[in-house]
Write a structure and sequence with these properties.
By secondary structure, the chain is an alpha+beta fold. Helices cover 39% and strands 12% of the residues. A 4-stranded mixed sheet has the order 1-4-5-8. A hairpin with a 2-residue loop joins strand 2 and strand 3.
Length: 412
């Protein structure tokens, strides 16, 4: 039985066998010099691979797949030991879609060959993943998607268009859902695939946003051939598989670990403290209210993580996603008001294609504009409210006339 002491021992053995590379200490003009840099160190990628192979990547995963089959709560023991030793992480913000969405789906529905092929390069960051779900005519109503996959021998030939695809411009792999049977109701004719973004027929185009950046993309699929060996789950079972992905996406977005005054509330609180000349009574009352709500959301996120560790996830993921969007938009709006004319300034409209999304980066104008997307990405607020109403609160479902109609017969 793996316990905390055993994990500390395993972590110490990893560090001894693969000492992570460290930067030399800065030169000192006073007192004795600091310890010299380690003479024989392991570079970042090799260290991460060794950590994965030692079962210390995600300890709750099975042995051989980066884990030890240990309780999820023990991951914190490993992380603390490695952080204290100055070990590198796997840059989770850059590979968040792979970690938070692709990996749990592959673990649950993938074949043994798929798990062994994809999970290790995913976790160490060698291969970036993106998500090919939303389409121009199927965003909020995702099950109405029209991208087609037609079976030809051992391959599927895929044609269609996806949109709002984060990281597509740097991704090697994508999780993809496509319609494989138009003669059944829309939820029943979908199949889930792993798509190689380097294959012929995959075209990625940037989508420039109101911020000036193009962190999102649209992806065109023209006669893309996907081997049946890269299918996840059964043919026509893609909607059920996709629910695993979507549930994990909401948890990943809403359950980010933040310190007190982390996120959007931090910059506006800092400005309030440092520039008393900007204060008014009305702004003070609004800031206090939003500060309290942000702290409540942060603590709720902590409870969500604790429930995940205990294997008892609740509805907090959807609730946190809703709170995340609303609070970001209200807080960033307050910050622009607090700064007055200065809040209307914008530093740079240069079109960039960033690898990372920093919701709190740059200046107040950027935060205000970028937060507008928070109520759309990862599931629109309106759809999430329906999910919470029907699946969490048990309220009567909205009348739907398309649930039993073949997809080909739906009005579009």
């Amino acid at each position: 039985m793996t316990d905390a002491a055993d994990l500390r021992r395993r972590t110490a053995e990893l560090l001894a066998a693969h000492p992570p590379a460290r930067l030399p200490p800065p030169p000192s003009t006073e007192g004795p010099a600091g310890p010299p840099p380690l003479s024989a160190t392991t570079d970042r990628l090799d260290f991460l691979k060794a950590r994965f192979d030692a079962g210390l990547a995600w300890v709750h995963y099975p042995e051989g797949l980066g884990g030890l089959g240990a309780p999820r709560s023990l991951q914190a023991v490993v992380d603390a030991e490695l952080e204290a030793a100055g070990a590198p992480d796997n840059d989770p913000r850059r590979i968040g879609i792979g970690l938070g969405m692709a990996a749990p789906t592959i673990l649950r529905y993938g074949t043994e060959e798929q798990k062994e092929r994809y999970l290790r390069p995913l976790w160490v960051g060698e291969e970036v993943w993106c998500q090919l779900f939303s389409e121009p005519g199927a965003g909020s109503d995702l099950a109405a998607l029209g991208t087609r996959a037609v079976r030809e021998g051992d391959d599927w030939v895929v044609n269609g268009q996806k949109v709002w695809t984060s990281s597509a411009h740097i991704a090697r792999w994508a999780i993809l859902i496509a319609r494989t049977d138009p003669d059944v109701p829309k939820h029943q004719g979908i199949t889930y695939f792993i798509c190689d973004m380097t294959d012929p027929g995959v075209e990625v185009r940037p989508l420039r946003q109101i911020t000036g950046e193009a962190e999102f993309n649209e992806v065109f699929l023209t006669d893309v051939r996907i081997p049946d060996s890269r299918r996840l789950g059964g043919v026509g079972d893609g909607w059920r598989v996709a629910q695993t992905t979507l549930n994990n996406e909401r948890v990943a977005i809403g359950g980010m670990r933040l310190p007190r005054e982390g996120g959007m509330i931090g910059p506006v609180s800092k400005t309030w403290r440092e520039r008393p000349g900007l204060r008014t009574h009305d702004l003070h009352q609004r800031l206090l209210k939003l500060w309290v709500e942000a702290e409540v959301a942060r603590l709720t996120g902590e409870r969500l993580r604790q429930q995940l560790v205990a294997g008892q996830p609740g509805p907090e993921g959807s609730g946190m996603k809703l709170a995340f969007a609303r609070l970001n938009q209200e807080i960033s709006g307050l910050e622009v008001e607090l700064l007055g004319e200065e809040g209307l300034l914008y530093d740079d409209w240069t079109m960039r294609r960033p690898e990372l999304v920093d919701f709190t980066g740059r200046e107040a104008g950027y935060r205000y504009l970028r937060s507008k997307g928070n109520s759309i990405e990862g599931g629109t607020t309106e759809v999430l409210l329906n999910i919470v109403a029907e699946r969490v609160l048990g309220l009567p479902a909205e009348p739907r006339t398309d649930k039993d109609v073949a997809w080909k017969d739906l009005a579009r």
